Amino acid sequence: MSSDLISDVPGTNPIILQNPPGGILTGNIVTLTCSVPGGNPLAILSWNCYGTKENNTVGNTASYTITTSVNKSFNNKICACTASHLISTYNPTVQHKLVVYYAPSDLPSIQQTPAGGIIAGHTVVLTCSVKGGNPLSILRWNCTGDMTNSTTDTTATYSVSFPVNKSHNKAICACSALHPDTSYTHVIEHSLDVYCKY
Q1: What is the mean pLDDT of each run of 10 residues along the chain (198 residues)?
Q2: Per the CB 3.0–4.6 Å rule, which of 7, 13, 42, 193 could disulfide with 62?
């Protein structure tokens, strides 16, 4: 009997590779490749995600790709590849989670504590924050002082505190917000009012 007539399942489950790897900037294209070697006949692969699909099977390896442009709604989306075979007991499904980088929709803001004019010798706290984005923005201050990072799951928050003197009157402290989506780069400024005792 010819060996071609003997059915056999692949020895492993499929694997999924992503190109480019890691987080994908919104608007960019990602390709997922599902592949599994071996079996007679080769496994038949299918995707549950929307995109341009292409059969890249070569030799003794079944391979099926899907290519799609992502937006922020794709973040944490699960794409699944299912392998089926003439021997129906072989039907594994493997999953892949997409991570999409997108900028915040809001601009950063600065809050001063205490508000208004500060008496020389007292301490002022400037808090820069911006909500949203994946990942959250990286915030930086151009003023020196004690820095505090109070970032939560949804909001990037970075504070600087320092005692003021009369030289700080009308001084400008700037907070810059940076993001992997380089179209989101913002700098906001805050002017200090210092009251002096003469």
Answers
A1: 71 97 97 96 96 94 98 96 95 98 96 95 97 97 96 97 94 96 96 85
A2: 42
If asked whether residues 189 and 117 sit together in one domain, one would say yes
Interacting residues of 173 by C-beta distance below 8 A, sequence separation 6+: 110, 126, 141, 142, 143, 160, 189, 190, 192
Domain around 61: 3-101
Going by C-alpha positions, the residue among 152, 149, 158, 105 that lies closest to residue 129 is 158
pLDDT of residue 1: 40
Please give the pLDDT value at position 198: 60
Structure tokens of 97? 């989670």
Are the C-beta atoms of 21 and 96 separated by less than 8 Å?
no
Phi, psi (rounded to 5 degrees) for 79: -105, 135
pLDDT recorded at residue 4: 56
CB 13, CB 45: distance < 8 Å: no
Domain harbouring 25, CATH code: 2.60.40.10
The number of distinct structural domains making up the chain is: 2
pLDDT given at position 6: 84
φ and ψ at 49, to 5 degrees?
-95, 155
What is d(CA 155, CA 164) in angstroms, rounded to the nearest whole number? 28
